[in-house]
Structures are given as structure tokens and as C-alpha cells.
Design a protein that fits this description.
The chain is of the alpha+beta class. Helices cover about 25% and strands about 30% of the residues. It is globular, with a radius of gyration of 15 Å.
Length: about 160
């Protein structure tokens, strides 16, 4: 079994429920246990600014799925949630990003690990800090150290349901 970290985001439909449903789906993946889940955070849109705010979260999984098999499972969960890939950084019902798989460095046409832009994005690091504050980020120290350097304007923890 290997630790893996997944970022979750949604800003269409009922984003909070989309994330909770996705966490349940992740917990039910074969050969996988959901070990930790972050709080939910409201964050401003990134990239395309003319869209609703996002709800973001992160989870820590213990899995024996290969990185590509896990990616395929994430894409299937997105599709079940009605994800349509119409506009890069645009609105979405559900976005699941494989951020990090313990001991894996990978760069192929389908998947790059660790995720190449996670250290730039408060909407990723804020919830990731809840589940893995000491996770190392290549060239940026730990999640906690990098998060302390980012602008968190517009980010807020949501009250749990």
C-alpha cells in the first residue's frame, strides 16, 4: 500500500455535496482506504475569473492501485459527477487532481507526479495542509512552509455539514 494525495474542487451545482460524494467514492475504490480528509474551503476562481467561487478539499489515500489506475478511477468519478471538460480552468462540477504518490516521480503524456503546479496554488495547499502539512514539495520546503508564503485572500474554511 502507498500513500497518495488527491485535491478536490467544484463550483457548479452543489459544490459541497459534490466533494462529499467524491470523498465517499474515493473511500470505496478497490484496494484503497481513505485515511484523512481535509476541511472544506471556499476559494476564489483561478485562471478564468468570471465564474463562481470554488469549494476545495484534499484527501490522503492508502492504495495499492498504480498511479495510472488511480488516475483512471479519478476520471471515472469526475465523469459520474457530470464533469464536462469544456474550458481550461473554467467552471466544473468536479475536479479531482492526483497530486502526489509516495515514492513516485513520473512525467508522461497522461500524468506528471508530483503535480507540477501544486506549490503555486493556495486552493490546493490550504486543504492539503490539513492532511499532510509536512509533505515535501520539490524546491519549496514542506506544504506548511510553502503555504505560509502564499496569498490566502478570499479563502475561507467552511463550516462542516
Amino acid at each position: 500500500m502507498t500513500l497518495a494525495y488527491v485535491a478536490l474542487g467544484s463550483n457548479l451545482g452543489n459544490p459541497r455535496q459534490q466533494l462529499l460524494d467524491a470523498m465517499d467514492a474515493l473511500a470505496n475504490l478497490p484496494d484503497t482506504r481513505l485515511l484523512r480528509r481535509s476541511h472544506l474551503y471556499r476559494t476564489p476562481p483561478w485562471g478564468v475569473l468570471e465564474q463562481p467561487p470554488f469549494v476545495n478539499a484534499a484527501v490522503q489515500l492508502d492504495t495499492s492501485l498504480s498511479p495510472h489506475a488511480l488516475l483512471d478511477a479519478l476520471l471515472a468519478i469526475e465523469q459520474q459527477a457530470g464533469r464536462v471538460r469544456a474550458e481550461r480552468n473554467g467552471p466544473r462540477t468536479l475536479d479531482l487532481d492526483l497530486l502526489y504518490v509516495e515514492g513516485v516521480q513520473l512525467d508522461d503524456p497522461r500524468l506528471t507526479l508530483p503535480h507540477p503546479r501544486m506549490a503555486e496554488r493556495a486552493f490546493v495547499l490550504l486543504p492539503l495542509h490539513d492532511v499532510a502539512p509536512t509533505l515535501p514539495l520539490s524546491g519549496h520546503g514542506t506544504v506548511a512552509e510553502r503555504l505560509a508564503q502564499l496569498d490566502l485572500a478570499g479563502c475561507a474554511r467552511l463550516l462542516e455539514p
